[in-house]
Design goal:
heterodimer; A: 163 residues; mainly alpha; B: 150 residues; alpha+beta; four-stranded antiparallel β-sheet; 5 helices
Chain lengths: 163, 150
């Protein structure tokens, strides 16, 4: 019961973060560079519960906020990025070599790589690949920031779980 | 012990961060070292080249891309453009002036292409994903090779 409530809470929270990100004008002229705020909920959930819970909440979040604040293309884009990012985070957590920040960096980087590859597929052009280096670097920075925040949030969540 | 280790940034994380930066920088440098002056603008739709135009033109030119019955592109002078009524149907509009390509408008839902910075260097591109439109800058030799490939 408590878990259901908490997962619902995280879904709501990540949708609010999605909304904030959709109105936040972080436009520096290069498409695809975002803070990835909703990813915070994913990283926290991944460490709080596990892969299934994190992935479920994230996919629900993408579909719901996609219909609310985005469009079909933003959903396709988000899902592909999310699945790529999630796969690498799952793997990096599994090998027990990196801590949360490292796992989050991997997520940020592969989220962007995934979206780029989908852009290549959809346009049938290699042109998007030109933005690979800047998107890798941006994904690392935002992933690191999200990781640092998650590191601070998790002790509180573990406290909530113990209650 | 486990909690403490988990809730801090480990050495492996920092090494990973710098490794990622190094990879990004390496790809960036490889791309940059190969960059010559771009001089041809290629417009592709769904992976097929539909228009080529010189990047450097005497006067500013404006292009309207429409998607009814396939794709068609018309170009306008600055004066003609000012009097032009943008269509209700799906479109992209871009300009080529002072060696720069700029997406002026689009009927797509996300407007990512419109927010894209103007492009002026070889291999840079503006992409409108919903419309499968790619505008990229190339050098002449290269676009000839592309022509052979098609």
């Amino acid at each position: 019961m408590k878990k259901t409530v908490l997962l619902g809470f995280f879904l709501t929270l990540s949708m609010i973060l999605s909304y904030i990100e959709s109105v936040l004008p972080l436009s520096i002229g290069i498409p695809g560079i975002k803070l990835g705020l909703p990813n915070m909920a994913v990283v926290v959930l991944l460490y709080m519960y596990g892969a299934g819970e994190a992935l479920t909440v994230n996919l629900l979040r993408i579909v719901l906020s996609g219909f609310l604040f985005g469009n079909l293309f933003s959903i396709i884009y988000s899902v592909s990025g999310a699945l790529f990012g999630f796969a690498i985070m799952f793997f990096m957590k599994k090998i027990h070599y990196f801590s949360i920040a490292g796992v989050s960096i991997g997520g940020g980087v592969f989220h962007n790589i995934g979206q780029l590859l989908i852009a290549v597929l959809l346009t049938r052009s290699q042109a998007p690949l030109y933005y690979m280096p800047i998107l890798i670097a941006a994904g690392a920075v935002t992933g690191f920031i999200i990781g640092l925040v998650s590191v601070r949030v998790l002790p509180y969540m573990e406290h909530v779980l113990k209650q | 012990m486990d909690i403490n280790r988990k809730h801090s940034v480990s050495k492996a994380d920092v090494i990973f961060l710098f490794a990622v930066f190094a990879v990004a920088a390496a790809i960036f440098l490889i791309l940059r070292l190969n960059v010559g002056q771009g001089d041809v603008v290629t417009v592709s739709y769904d992976g097929t080249q539909v228009l080529q135009l010189p990047l450097i033109q005497e006067d500013a030119r404006y292009y309207l891309v429409q998607y009814q019955d396939g794709i068609n592109i018309k170009d306008y002078s600055e004066k003609e453009w000012r009097d032009l009524q943008l269509p209700d149907a799906d479109f992209n509009a871009f300009s080529c002036s002072d060696g720069e390509i700029r997406m002026l408008g689009s009927s797509c839902p996300d407007k990512i292409c419109v927010h894209h910075a103007a492009i002026s260097h070889k291999w840079e591109s503006i992409i409108c994903l919903p419309h499968k439109l790619v505008i990229e800058i190339e050098a002449v030799e290269e676009s000839d090779l592309d022509g052979v490939a098609y």
